[in-house]
Amino acid sequence: MLSVKNVTKYYGDLLAVDDLSFDIFEGEIFGLLGVNGSGKTTTFRMIMGLLDKSKGEIFLNNKKIDYSVTDSIGFLTEERSLLLNKTVLEQAYLYGTLKGMKSKDIEEKLDKYLKEFKIEEYKNKKIKELSKGNQQKIQFIMSILHSPKLLILDEPFSGLDPINVDMFKKVILRLKKEKTIIIFSSHMMEHIEYFCDSLIILVKGKSVLQGKLSKIKSDYKTKNIIVEANVDEAKINKIKGVISVEKTQEKYTIKVEDIKYVSEVFKEISKCDNVTKFVVEEPTLNEIFISKVGEAYEN
Fold first, then answer.
1. Do 177 and 258 share a domain, yes or no?
2. DSSP labels for 28-97?
3. What average pLDDT score do residues 141-148 get?
4. Total structural domains in the chain?
5. Distance, CA of 77 to CA of 140 (rounded, Å)
6. Spatial distance between the Cα atoms of 22 and 12, rounded to a whole number of angstroms
7. Which of 50, 121, 176, 216 is the most exposed place for a label (fewest CB within 10 A)?
8. Helix 132-144 crosses helix 103-116 at what angle (to 10 degrees)?
9. 94 & 213 share domain
10. Distance CA 136, CA 142 (A)
């Protein structure tokens, strides 16, 4: 388990992380979200032992994180962190050796992942000769080469096409099954919804929302009603509790303040012609994120 307890970080007088606490269990994917400057990168660096905390404690499997523990952490950074003049194999030997791996194990693991990502022919190619997408694959392989107990993924799908995103997804879900603790950060909320069991949203270094994703969504009052019918938008907009009515392609999304207003919308929709769909959905994580971040900046 990764345990972050009352962690605070100051840069001089600037408060970057403010009394942050959360736990992540083995086999859990945890979303760490926030706009740029929210304290995510500082939090990552403290978890990895690259930055000292001003206050608080961080433990991985009941051990304080220091150089004796960091070999069991993998980190895929948003920025490219590969040595462009090294070959893929040379890069693997460097990373693997730094993580305490034996040479034989390094090459075996590398071969396995190159085959899985369908880039075996690049083993002896220099990093600078690879496309952006293939560099991202190599960077991901380096972060998991040593079978980390804790894996931090910061915008892991940057520069990837849908086919390669699917490859990454399969590996990430397999690591979850193998009980890896995974912290996942992305501005693409659909990826957070796909992967994450729990999450935390940071604004100016402080948590404004955290918990199980399913509970966060069910507790959020605003609901979306998806309708396929010949809708009279003016009539729907007049119903108490309706926030908005939007049409995209052949369907309408009716946003209501609370689930208690759904029955009134249903009564009106039932009078419409050609009703083929009426579904009540939880709000998207994107909606919740925008709402919570906006509220925090207004206060």
1. no
2. -EEEEEE-TTSSHHHHHHHHTTSS--SEEEEEETTEE-STTTGGGEEEE-SS----TTSBHHHHHHHHHH
3. 96
4. 2
5. 9
6. 25
7. 121
8. 140
9. yes
10. 10
Which of 194, 217, 240 terminates a domain? The answer is 217
**289 lies in some domain:** no
Amino acid (one-letter) located at 24: I
Q: What is the mean pLDDT of the chain?
A: 93
Q: Is the pLDDT of residue 158 over 90?
A: no
Quick check: is 270 in a domain?
yes
Both 46 and 193 in one domain: the answer is yes
- Confirm if 265 and 225 have CB atoms less than 8 A apart: yes
Query: For residue 224, what pLDDT band results from cuts at 50, 70 and 90?
Result: very high
- d(CA 196, CA 80) in angstroms, rounded, equals 24
Identify the CA nearest to 80 among candidates 1, 158, 176, 174: 158
Domain match, 172 and 264 both: no
Last residue of a domain, one of 202, 217, 232: 217
> What is the CA 211 to chain-centroid distance, rounded?
14
> Is residue 279 within 8 Å of residue 223, measured between CB atoms?
no
**Helical spans, DSSP H, in 80-184:** 88-98, 103-116, 132-144, 162-177
Question: Does residue 299 lie within any of the structural domains?
Answer: no
In terms of Cβ atoms closer than 10 Å to its own Cβ (0-12, 13-18, 19+), residue 91 is buried
Residue pLDDT, tens place only, 67-108: 788 889 999 988 777 999 999 999 999 999 999 999 999 999
Give the residue numbers spanning the domain of 255.
221-281
* One domain, residues 51 and 150: yes
